[in-house]
Structure to design on (940 residues):
């Protein structure tokens, strides 16, 4: 296993393909992007994730050239692209609405960009055929966009934006218009195509599952700022803030005050009625500093008997059970009124499970199960 | 399946009878052989014959057609530009005045538009004739074209233009290759509207036409002021028939296209399932 | 950048020269005096720029208020436009309602039937009524044959003929916005009203009419505004007693050759029109905002 892991962001000698350097974008009084600095490397599949209005679409439109930068510099392969109009950028975009030209056939849509480059006819023909093959639409070349299905339109849009072999492909909510089943299939297809063509992809999405599935790195955004940039796994396991922890997946947030209890180990005093929670943390907290423990429901065990070996254990009663098929989430109410969510995999059929509503139960977790966050 | 109540059937029948009977009467009496238009004296097509020998009418028709073709083409170009500026132009100096000038002619009484243009032509010493009518008609019909085209542009998905730019088109190529083909139906209806308005116009033409250029509506107006005439009935019948054929054809084509689009959409749906 | 400037400049300059400038000229001439000359007013540019502006006065406007022909004409135009707008609404609403309730496959055809007269020559449509309404016209023949009258009814060349003409020619402008409003109406609203105890008539007055208000208002303005300045209908169907301002302006200009007074008439008409136009604009804006 000598294959190196793809992680150019960890190599200090690697030059980023895209650099946002202190970029600010204002629309009148409104600050859409606030002093943002970010590097994206060649061949990455980079996801911009955030709620609507967080500035992710503005960032993408600045890369495409549809918005100008108010302050700061955007570099593509070392060149400042601030003054380059969209039609002269080696960047292509796949639009959320697909923006397929309704009066042109699938073939002509894909050839559109190649024709603008005044390429020779045989060259254009060959490239369009190649693209049609890539997205498996050879049979539909002569159809108009309204004569094919939504999933096929999505693939035409992808083929059209890839035809010019751009250095960078921007994808604006590329799967947003598809239904859930088709979306999951298409995610893997998208990853395959990204790998085959070796193009750098920047995807904008508000769907955290989608970002986690496809991306090599994810940038979580809020109100024009990047909150955290990391691989999907570290975003999930090591969020840097309550905002990120809460935005990605389901989480319990327990607020309290930290006090040291050994190396990289703290006690979290949260309510008087409960014993302090023991948790490890690599960031250090001062004595009595306010802290939040973020802990995922699936890291919390639930049992009818008091567990022997757990570092944290407390008793409560089952308030609610959400049955999700493969999983069940238990809402456990502690004597002080706090509610903690715990999740278990449903490995047995329903009749064999022993915990039900109003049952007194124990919930427990290890010191390493959660993350301590300052804010 | 909805059924119409008696009330609705009656109001539709009476309403459309009111709209169409006067025109049918006109057509009917154009085939009357008597000069007294209200007394039926047997079927005849002689008024069509005399109409086509009346040089004054034929000249006026020719001038009207020339004016309508020229002014509707100018109006379509200028109106489309104006619509594009209004919808896509962003901010520029005097934008409010510009949009005001686009909408004002739509509600302006024709007598005022006609009077003001005449006074302009006189004060700059332009001789009244075909040119002045074309200028006048272009001015008010470009506003109609602009309203028709801008309402289409407003629903136009802007990302189509952006996609064209993104794929390497210059702004002009994006307009020519993407925007124009898609808004073409609106531009064509704008042209048709401008053409019809010009054919129809009596008041503005009366102000701006000189003795050298008399249009058909001016001719008709001076004839009918003296009372009903069978020749005018024949002329009206021809004009009504041309319009009817045009409108019916257009709506049949639209309907056929809509049906076809629906079938294709259904086929596309089936293809995926 | 230069291309954008050109794109804006071409239609802009066209309208400035051929729409805006003419109004300034009308305004200027309305403040001048009539003269037996070509052009028939004074001062002109030939008298020098200083003199041209120094001699302007409001004499013509004073004249308009002194001669009761003019204010009677304004008042009568207003009344005729108002009455005929109301009549158009009475005729147009049931048609629009019937269209909105018609089966879907009829809609396109009915729509075409409403629009078709709009493409047909206005002049011809007015002319068609001359043969019907005259003393020995079709209507009188019919009534005579039915034994309802012994003497022909005098309709042509009266205000009644003008009302009929306006209702007839402007009917599509009333039907289309009302139909558009009714067509958007959710039919279950009517059913809900009946479910809650309204009779069909009550449901119509309490639900359908208020919800089609925007269409009614838009249609009424679309008829009222052009009717106010109408020229063709009063001059063909109206009589010597029919006073409408469009006709007065025409006669002042072509028959009396009094350009300054004609211009003053135009300026006052424009001022009067501003009110309904602003109201109409506001209604359209409100409607657009409501849709968003």
């Amino acid at each position: 296993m000598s294959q190196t892991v793809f992680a150019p962001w960890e190599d200090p000698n690697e030059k980023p393909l895209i650099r946002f350097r202190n970029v600010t974008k204002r629309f009148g009084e409104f600050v859409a992007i606030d002093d943002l600095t970010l590097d994206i490397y060649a061949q990455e599949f980079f996801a911009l994730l955030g709620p609507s209005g967080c500035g992710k679409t503005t960032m993408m439109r600045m890369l495409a050239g549809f918005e100008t930068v108010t302050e700061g510099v955007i570099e593509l392969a070392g060149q400042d692209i601030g003054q380059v109009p969209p039609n002269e950028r080696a960047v292509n975009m796949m639009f959320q609405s697909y923006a397929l030209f309704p009066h042109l056939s699938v073939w002509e849509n894909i050839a559109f960009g190649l024709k603008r480059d005044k390429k020779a006819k045989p060259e254009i023909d060959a490239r369009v055929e190649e693209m049609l093959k890539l997205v498996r639409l050879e049979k539909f070349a002569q159809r108009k966009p309204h004569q094919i299905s939504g999933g096929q339109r999505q693939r035409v849009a992808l083929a059209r934006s890839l035809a010019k072999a751009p250095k960078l492909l921007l994808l604006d909510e590329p799967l947003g218009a598809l239904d859930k089943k088709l979306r999951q299939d298409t995610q893997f297809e998208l990853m395959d195509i990204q790998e085959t063509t070796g193009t750098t992809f920047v995807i904008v999405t508000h769907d955290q599952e989608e970002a986690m599935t496809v991306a090599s790195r994810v940038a979580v955004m809020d109100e024009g700022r990047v909150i955290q940039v990391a691989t999907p796994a570290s975003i999930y396991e090591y969020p840097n803030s309550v905002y990120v922890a809460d935005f990605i997946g389901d989480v319990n947030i327990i607020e309290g005050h930290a006090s040291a209890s050994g190396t990289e180990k703290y006690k979290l005093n949260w309510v008087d009625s409960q014993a302090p929670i023991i948790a490890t943390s690599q960031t250090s907290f001062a004595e009595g500093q306010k802290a939040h423990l973020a802990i995922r429901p699936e890291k919390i065990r639930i049992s009818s008997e008091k567990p022997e070996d757990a570092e944290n254990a407390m008793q409560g009663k089952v308030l609610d059970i959400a049955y999700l098929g493969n999983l069940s989430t238990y809402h456990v109410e502690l004597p002080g009124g706090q509610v903690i969510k715990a999740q278990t995999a449903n490995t047995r059929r329903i009749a064999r499970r022993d915990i039900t509503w109003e049952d007194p139960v124990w919930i427990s977790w290890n010191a390493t199960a959660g993350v301590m966050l300052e804010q | 399946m909805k059924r119409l109540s008696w009330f609705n059937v009656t109001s539709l029948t009476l309403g459309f009878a009111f709209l169409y009977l006067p025109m049918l009467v006109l057509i009917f009496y154009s085939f009357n052989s008597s000069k007294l238009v209200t007394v039926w004296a047997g079927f005849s097509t002689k008024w069509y014959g005399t109409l086509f020998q009346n040089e004054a009418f034929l000249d006026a028709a020719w001038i009207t057609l020339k004016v309508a073709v020229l002014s509707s083409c100018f109006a379509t170009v200028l109106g489309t530009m104006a619509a594009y500026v209004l919808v896509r132009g962003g901010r520029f100096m005097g934008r409010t005045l510009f949009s005001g000038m686009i909408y004002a002619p739509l509600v302006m009484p024709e007598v005022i538009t006609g009077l003001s243009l005449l006074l302009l032509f006189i004060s700059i010493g332009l001789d009244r004739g075909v040119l002045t009518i074309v200028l006048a008609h272009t001015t008010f019909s470009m506003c109609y074209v602009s309203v028709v085209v801008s309402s289409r542009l407003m629903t136009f998905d802007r990302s189509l233009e952006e996609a064209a730019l993104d794929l390497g088109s210059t702004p002009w190529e994006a307009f020519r290759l993407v925007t124009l083909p898609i808004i073409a139906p609106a531009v064509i209806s704008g042209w048709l509207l401008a053409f019809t308005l010009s054919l129809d116009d009596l008041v503005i033409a009366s102000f701006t036409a000189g003795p050298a250029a008399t249009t058909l509506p001016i001719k008709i107006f001076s004839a009918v002021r003296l009372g009903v005439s069978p020749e005018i009935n024949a002329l009206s019948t021809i004009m009504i028939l041309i319009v009817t054929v045009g409108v019916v054809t257009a709506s049949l084509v639209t309907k056929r296209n809509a049906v076809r689009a629906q079938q294709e959409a259904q086929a596309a749906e089936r293809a995926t399932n | 950048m230069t291309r954008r400037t050109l794109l804006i400049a071409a239609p802009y300059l066209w309208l400035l020269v051929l729409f805006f400038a003419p109004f300034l000229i009308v305004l200027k001439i309305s403040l001048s005096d009539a003269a037996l000359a070509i052009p028939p007013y004074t001062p002109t540019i030939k008298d020098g720029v200083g003199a041209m502006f120094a001699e302007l006065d409001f004499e013509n406007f004073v004249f308009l208020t002194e001669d009761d022909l003019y204010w009677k004409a304004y008042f009568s135009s207003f009344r005729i436009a108002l009455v005929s707008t109301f009549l158009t609404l009475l005729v147009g609403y049931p048609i629009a309602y019937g269209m909105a309730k018609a089966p879907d496959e009829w809609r396109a055809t009915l729509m075409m039937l409403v629009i078709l007269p709009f493409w047909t020559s206005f002049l011809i449509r007015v002319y068609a009524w001359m043969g019907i309404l005259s003393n020995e016209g079709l209507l009188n023949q019919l009534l005579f044959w039915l034994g309802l009258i012994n003497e022909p009814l005098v309709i042509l060349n009266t205000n009644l003929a003008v009302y009929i003409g306006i209702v007839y020619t402007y009917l599509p402008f009333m039907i289309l916005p009302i139909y558009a409003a009714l067509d958007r109406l959710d039919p279950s609203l009517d059913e809900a009203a009946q479910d809650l105890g309204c009779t069909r008539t009550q449901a119509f007055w309490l639900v359908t009419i208020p919800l089609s208000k925007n269409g009614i208002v838009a249609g009424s303005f679309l008829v009222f505004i052009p009717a106010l300045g109408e020229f063709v209908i009063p001059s063909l169907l109206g009589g010597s007693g029919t006073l409408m301002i469009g006709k007065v302006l025409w006669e002042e200009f072509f028959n009396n050759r009094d350009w300054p007074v004609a211009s003053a008439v135009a300026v006052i008409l424009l001022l009067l029109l501003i009110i309904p136009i602003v109201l109409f604009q506001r209604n359209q804006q409100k409607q657009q905002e409501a849709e968003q």
